[in-house]
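REQUEST FORM: STRUCTURE PREDICTION
Request ID: SP-0412
Submitted by: Lab K.M.
Chain count: 1
Length (residues): 115
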Amino acid sequence: QVQLVESGGGLVQAGGSLRLSCTASGRTFSNYNMGWYRQAPGKEREFVATISRSGLTTDYADSVKGRFTISRDKSKNTVYLQMNSLKPENTAIYYCRAGPPGIYWGQGTQVTVSS
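STATUS: Completed
RESULT:
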């Protein structure tokens, strides 16, 4: 089992920045690909970004490319999502995901971007 705890969400004005954190415990952090997903009200959960076990490979949804950056710190068992130039349509609950192997989810952190 992997336990994931997200933090860093909040209320920000359009154009602002936030950095989300997700700290993992329970298994070896470096064994897992890590990712961020989000779910806006009335919509399905969607992919935002992912980072490989080594941290050398990243991938982003087209809508966030150039504005969001995913990174990981093995010494802290933590993955980050730096979000810049935020837009109101980025308002959602942001979830951290570990895996494969297996799939594990955090409880989510709310991000609200006001216009």
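NOTES: The radius of gyration is 13 Å.
Reviewed by: T.R.
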